[in-house]
Amino acid sequence: MADADDVRRVALALPHMVENPSDGFDFRVADKGFVWSYPERTPGKPRVIRLDIAVLFVGDEAEKQALLLGEPEVFFTAPGYDGLPLVLLRLAAVDLDRLTELVTDAWRMRVPDALVNDREGEPLGDREGEPLGDRAAAGK
């Protein structure tokens, strides 16, 4: 079961990542968001930042639909996200390995090729012979 602290550890382990100040979490690479806490909006009520739900960049509508249909207990969407390559992720429904995979994939889709070719951006998991999940769990 993952939580907001796990999202933060995983995202902070990625090269060229920037954390925007937020009431929750908000991670970007090259000014492009790849994972952030869900700003739930209910008509007539103030916006609530949900730390138990992450908004995750997924690349395109086909991937979004595959995730929504394939794992409705993990992924969902909400009004305002129609037509956008974003899904809502129930953090409690995934373990750290799956969270690491999802956040890393979102980062890879957003990071410019020029940054991936840097020493820091070599294929994740190949650096120092350890998988990203181990680096993230160790806070590296």
What's this entry about, in short?
The chain has 140 residues and is an alpha+beta fold. The chain has five helices and six strands; from the N terminus they run αββββαββααα.
Describe the protein in words.
With about 140 residues, the chain is an alpha+beta fold. The protein has one domain (about 5-135): Aspartate Aminotransferase, domain 1 (Alpha-Beta Complex). The chain has five helices and six strands, in the order H-E-E-E-E-H-E-E-H-H-H. The protein has helices at about 5-10, 60-70, 95-110, 115, 130-135; strands at about 15-20, 25-30, 30-40, 50-55, 75, 85-90. A six-stranded antiparallel sheet has the order 1-2-3-4-6-5. Helix 1 (about 5-10) packs across helix 3 (about 95-110). The protein is globular. Residues about 125-140 have low confidence and may be disordered.
Labels describing this entry:
six-stranded antiparallel β-sheet, globular, Aspartate Aminotransferase, domain 1, 5 helices, single chain, alpha+beta, YjbR protein, YjbR/MT2646/Rv2570-like, 140 residues
